[in-house]
């Protein structure tokens, strides 16, 4: 057999097997959705914003999912209505690119966080997201110290109210110039702040692209990780066989650290059945 014909034949056969396997898994997902709930499941609302929030909350309630990510104060009453926990609050940040690494944003950020932190605690929530911001020519060491200087002014209030400030890690492909782009830099920031109320939001998708070695990072740095996000690599799509990460092993590694927080799905759906894709992701992570 000619080499080109052989490769094409094998590729076509492999694609057929993968497609059949994926379809079979989707069908099984629809038939039997039962969670062991060894982890605390959550999901980022923005990935399903084709649905009104209340309709999405009703779906989550029907699935037995008790948490949702990245919801601000104005929508917390709706979450209360459906007894859905906000596992990662937002609303105090300026933007992903304008963050704590640049002192010119400190005054606004400090004002925002001092206002929101008590509201998070009053609502019965714990986690509040923050961002480093882009470098814009700022040296990483200088940016880290700038973060320490600014965040130190809100940490006493966070500690008083039991609120955990969590800085998200991003990759340089999707977020060029973002400063908090490595586990090591983020861990150093945690060490400099020296507070149990400051953690890292470890986004598995971002860190697979940026540095890889996901399970080793979890094992080495888990005391500094307060929350996890998922998505498939490449493309930030479903966490099925179409991507390179094996999430059951990753979630098991997280569980093995004794983690009691939330793991939130944050992938861009390509399936026609969007809720079916979400159910599939929950099942894959329900180790």
Concise account of the structure shown:
With 287 residues, the chain is α/β, with parallel strands linked by helices.
What does this protein structure show overall?
- There is one protein chain.
- The chain has 287 residues and is α/β, with parallel strands linked by helices.
- It has a single domain (40-285), classed as TIM Barrel, CATH 3.20.20.150.
- The protein is built from 11 helices and 8 strands.
- The protein has a 6-stranded parallel sheet. It has a two-stranded parallel ribbon with strand order 2-3.
- Strand 5 (164-168), helix 7 and strand 6 form a beta-alpha-beta unit.
- The longest helix has 29 residues, at 3-31.
- It is globular.
- It starts with a helix and ends with a helix.
- The relative contact order is 0.14.
- The mean pLDDT is 92.
Helix-strand blueprint:
Elements: H1 3-31, E1 40-43, H2 53-63, E2 67-71, H3 76-81, E3 85-89, H4 106-122, E4 127-130, H5 140-151, H6 155-161, E5 164-168, H7 183-193, E6 198-203, H8 204-210, H9 214-221, E7 225-230, H10 247-256, E8 262-265, H11 274-285
Parallel strand pairs: 1-8, 2-3, 4-5, 5-6, 6-7, 7-8
Helix pairs in contact: 1-11, 5-7, 9-10
Secondary structure tally, helices: 11
Q: Could you give the order of strands across the largest sheet? A: 1-8-7-6-5-4
CATH topology: TIM Barrel
- Please, what is the CATH homologous superfamily? Divalent-metal-dependent TIM barrel enzymes
Mean model confidence by pLDDT: 92
Tertiary shape: globular
CATH class: Alpha Beta
Unreliable sequence segments: none
> What is the CA-CA span between the terminal residues?
44 Å
Helix content: 40-55%
Series of secondary-structure elements, N-terminal to C-terminal: HEHEHEHEHHEHEHHEHEH
Q: How many structural domains does the protein architecture include?
A: 1
Structural class: alpha/beta
Number of strands: 8
Largest sheet: 6 strands, parallel
Rounded radius of gyration (Å): 20 Å
Question: What CATH architecture label applies?
Answer: Alpha-Beta Barrel
What portion of residues belong to β-strands? 5-15%
């Amino acid at each position: 057999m000619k080499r080109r014909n052989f490769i094409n034949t094998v590729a076509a056969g492999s694609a057929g097997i993968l497609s059949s396997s994926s379809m079979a898994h989707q069908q099984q997902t629809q038939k039997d959705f039962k969670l062991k709930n060894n982890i605390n499941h959550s999901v980022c609302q923005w990935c399903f914003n084709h649905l009104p929030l209340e309709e999405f909350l009703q779906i989550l309630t029907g699935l037995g999912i008790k948490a949702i990510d990245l919801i601000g104060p104005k929508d917390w009453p709706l979450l209360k209505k459906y007894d859905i926990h906000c596992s990662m609050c937002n609303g105090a940040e300026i933007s992903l690119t304008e963050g704590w690494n640049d002192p010119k944003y400190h005054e606004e950020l400090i004002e925002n966080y001092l206002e929101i932190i008590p509201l998070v605690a009053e609502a019965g929530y714990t986690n509040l997201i923050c961002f480093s911001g882009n470098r814009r020519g700022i040296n990483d060491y200088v940016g880290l110290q700038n973060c320490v200087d600014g965040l130190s002014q809100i940490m006493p209030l966070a500690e008083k109210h039991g609120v955990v400030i969590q800085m998200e890690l991003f990759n340089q492909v999707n977020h060029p110039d973002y400063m908090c782009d490595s586990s090591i830099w983020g861990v150093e920031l945690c060490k400099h702040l020296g507070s149990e109320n400051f953690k890292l939001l470890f986004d598995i998708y971002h860190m697979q692209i940026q540095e890889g070695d996901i399970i080793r990072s979890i094992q080495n740095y888990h005391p500094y990780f307060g929350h996890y996000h998922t998505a498939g690599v490449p493309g930030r799509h479903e966490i099925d066989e179409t991507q390179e990460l094996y999430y059951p092993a990753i979630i098991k590694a997280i569980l093995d650290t004794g983690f009691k927080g939330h793991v939130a799905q944050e992938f861009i759906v390509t399936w026609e059945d969007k809720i079916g894709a979400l159910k599939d992701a929950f099942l894959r992570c329900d180790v």
